[in-house]
Amino acid sequence: SSSTLKDFQAFFTNKLGLQDYICFPVSQFGRIRFIEGRNRFARSERPKYYRRPNRAKSNDVLFPIDKIKDKSKLILVEGLFDMLNMWQHGFKNVLCIFGTQNFGPKKVELLDQIGITKVHILMDGDSAGVRAASSIQKLLESNSIETRNISLPPGRDPGDLSKYELEQAIK
């Protein structure tokens, strides 16, 4: 929604190779880490995602950690648009991990640092999401963080679900 895009300071630009991308400043602890752009056109020769600076790492970024008020129970999702969809449906305790292969010890340390003890894992319903959820669950539980893996049907992801579907999945 336009209000969600405004909440996350979405913008368009013709600079930095980001034309045709909707851009989001990704910040953590009050500091912009990088700009994440998503291609607005399904049939494009350009990559779906584009980051500036292009070598910016996200292995220690959980976004939007600065906006989370209730840290008693978090929901982890794969992508930025998964998080944005959930946010606009009222789930204000969601963090994007930036991909299935991008959750490791640095992110666990970050969760521990801010006092997280309970996490719901809500990855896409494809094989990569299922594998990632299992791996993330093992890593979190080995660090004494209580987890719950929420499975979605094949082909579904949190970015495409309605508020009702999200509520049912989380129940």
* Low-pLDDT stretches: none
Mean pLDDT: 94
Overall shape: globular
Portion of residues in beta strands equals 15-25%
Structural class: alpha/beta
Main-sheet strand order equals: 5-4-6-7
In total, the number of strands is 7
Helix count from the secondary structure assignment: 5
Order of helices and strands: HEEEEHEHEHEH
How far apart the termini lie comes to: 24 Å
What is the radius of gyration?
16 Å
Main attributes of the structure:
single chain; 171 residues; alpha/beta; four-stranded parallel sheet; three-stranded antiparallel sheet; 5 helices
Mind explaining what this structure looks like?
This protein is an alpha/beta fold and 171 residues long. Helices cover 27% and strands 21% of the residues. The strands form two sheets. It has a four-stranded parallel beta sheet, sandwiched between helices. A three-stranded antiparallel beta sheet has the order 1-2-3, with no helix packed on it. Helix 4 links the parallel strand 6 and strand 7. It is globular, with a radius of gyration of 16 Å.
Fold topology:
Elements: H1 2-7, E1 21-28, E2 31-39, E3 49-52, E4 74-77, H2 80-88, E5 94-96, H3 105-113, E6 118-121, H4 127-141, E7 146-149, H5 163-170
Parallel strand pairs: 4-5, 4-6, 6-7
Antiparallel strand pairs: 1-2, 2-3
Q: What is shown here, in short?
A:
Helix content is 27%, strand content 21%. It contains five helices and seven strands, in the order αββββαβαβαβα. It has helices at residues 2-7, 80-88, 105-113, 127-141, 163-170, and strands spanning 21-28, 31-39, 49-52, 74-77, 94-96, 118-121, 146-149.
